[in-house]
Structure formats: structure tokens, C-alpha cells
Amino acid sequence: MGNITLRKVNKSFGATQVIPGIDLTIEDGEFVVFVGPSGCGKSTLLRLIAGLEDTTSGTIEIDGKDVTEAAPAKRGLAMVFQSYALYPHMTVRNNIAFPLKMAKASPDVIEKKVTEAARVLNLTNYLDRRPGQLSGGQRQRVAIGRAIVREPSAFSSLDRPAALHKMAAAPRLRG
């Protein structure tokens, strides 16, 4: 995992300032949770870090590199959405493997990474099932698996307090 640094990051929508010039450093290996009422800017902050929103001002660095203007795919982050965004027609195995296939990884690498992610996330017995055959927690773990096989610099978001709590309780996911 990597370091994430925000320097005077500000986000406004029109005249409404939603992120007021925040300075924040998340060190390698740290686990950070953003907590607050609905509409306070938690998701916006996560979207800024991930590159899904543009900052109004300030800089975002990942591992010392300014990524403020970088596309999401160039940031080396993994984001797991609240809705999980799984492909319903694909098996768990293929959902987890999908980003590796898109990156044109070799079949051996794909198999190794999918097998390890499934083991760590307790999904081995579900690899041939489809998302509709899984519980909500199992679907969430599939989405996490799809993110971790990419070996990102950091996870930019698990936009649900329950998911964050579960991740904090699972040190094996953090290496």
C-alpha cells in the first residue's frame, strides 16, 4: 500500500464549498475512516482521492507523486463501491479476475491471484457461483477481491461504515 497526501484540497459545487481546504496524510499501512452526517463531504473526499471528481484547488499526492490531474486509472488505487458493482452474469471467479483480464495478465497470474484472494476472503467455496446466489457480505467480499488482485497502492474507499469496520477487523487483507 502507499501514502496519500492531501494539501489544501478544496472542492466547491458552485458557491457551495463542500471540502474546505483539507490537509491530510495517510501513511502506508494506516487505516482511516471518514465519519460524519449525510451530506458532509465524506463521499466527495473519497471521490477526489480516487480521481472521480476534480479538485477546485489543492493537490493530491500518492507515494509522493502529484496525481491531482491524473486520470483514476493512473492513480494506482482501488475503489470498492457501496453497490459492489458486480457483473451478475459472471461467476465469482470471473468477477474477481475481470480487472486482471482487462490488464491482459497471463492465465497463470490470473489463477494465482484469484485463488489467493478467494482464500484470504473466505470465498473459495463460492468461486463458481454468481452474485445473485451470494449473501450481501459475500458480494462485498467479491468486490474487495476484485480490488485487491490489482495490488493497488491504496484502497481509496469502501463507502460504507460496516464495510470499513469489517476491513479493520481483517488484518490479513492488508498484508
What report would you give on this structure?
The protein has 175 residues and is of the alpha+beta class. The strands form two sheets. A four-stranded antiparallel sheet has the order 2-1-3-4, with helices on one face. A two-stranded parallel sheet has the order 5-6. It folds into two domains: 4-75, Rossmann fold (3-Layer(aba) Sandwich); 92-152. It has helices at residues 42-50, 92-102, 107-120, 136-148, 161-168, and strands at residues 4-13, 16-26, 57-62, 65-66, 77-80, 154-158. Strand 3 and strand 4 (65-66) form a beta hairpin. It starts with a strand and ends in a 7-residue tail after the last helix. Helix content is 31%, strand content 22%.
Instruction: Tell me the structural class.
Output: alpha+beta
The CATH homologous superfamily name of the largest domain equals P-loop containing nucleotide triphosphate hydrolases
Q: Would you list the SSEs in sequence order as H and E? A: EEHEEEHHHEH
The averaged pLDDT comes out at 85
Uncertain regions: pLDDT < 50 for 5+ in a row? 171-175
CATH architecture group name of the largest domain: 3-Layer(aba) Sandwich
Query: Which word captures the global form?
Result: elongated
Helix content: 25-40%
**Largest sheet composition:** 4 strands, antiparallel
How many strand units? 6
Counted up, domains total 2
Q: What integer value in Å does the Rg equal?
A: 17 Å
End-to-end CA span: 9 Å
Give the amount of beta strand, in percent.
15-25%
